[in-house]
Amino acid sequence: MTFLKIEGLEKNFQIVHLGQTIHAVQQLNFSMNQGEFIGITGKSGSGKSTILKSIYRTYLPEAGRIYFDSEKYGWIDLQKASEREIIYLRKYEIGYVSQFLNVMPRTTARELVEQSVLETGRSLLEAQKEAEEVLSHFELDRKLWDTYPNTFSGGEKLRLNIAIAAVKKPRLLLLDEPTASLDQQSKQKVKEVIQKLKESGTTLLGVFHDIEFMDELCDHIFEMSQQSFKRAGAAL
């Protein structure tokens, strides 16, 4: 069953002072099924992250359609959705994780996860319970729960970042180069987290530079230069 479908997507960026236009994505066509994990690969500047940001509506493309099978709204075009609808989808159905953890200062890891739960309308008691469960689930050391994330290692920050998104139980999770600059041990922890998310039924779409990492996790890989899918593990 098709869960997400992109038709004729185009996104450009204007460099006003140089009078130039960068064509980030041109006539992209893409689809995926519910429960899949698809990795996007391609050279730097090929538009991989632009696709994720367009789905999340951080970017508004010049042309094309992005259809999402929403639990609340049904088959919805994310490019035509209202701001109210996008806010709802970000709260309840679509999550986004980047390699960077940008959070409010002087806020502990536990508080950050609790705030994420509270945003969905659940009670403080539920938020406290969910925070403990998800921090344990993603194997963040208990001694770090009540400390500030600016002291965390790269891998710990990333696991917290994923926990903040995952606690909302999104139906679709977008991963924007979450393993960039991580050591092998940290990458292994991230891999375990992603496997758990997939097993729980989350549909995942990710951008990775580490092809081996993708091959071991993804169902299929989408190659930007050819705009085609390959089975994970097959030669690109």
From TrEMBL:
KW Lyase (keyword) present: yes
Stretches assigned to the ABC transporter domain: 4-236
Residue ranges crossing the lipid bilayer per the database entry: none
GO molecular-function term, one example from the UniProt record: lyase activity
Pfam families listed in its UniProt record: ABC_tran
Keywords: ATP-binding, Lyase, Nucleotide-binding
Record bears the keyword ATP-binding: yes
Top-level lineage group: Bacteria
InterPro entries: AAA+_ATPase, ABC_transporter-like_ATP-bd, P-loop_NTPase
PROSITE patterns, per the entry: ABC_TRANSPORTER_2
Family: Belongs to the ABC transporter superfamily.
Protein name: Phosphonate C-P lyase system protein PhnL
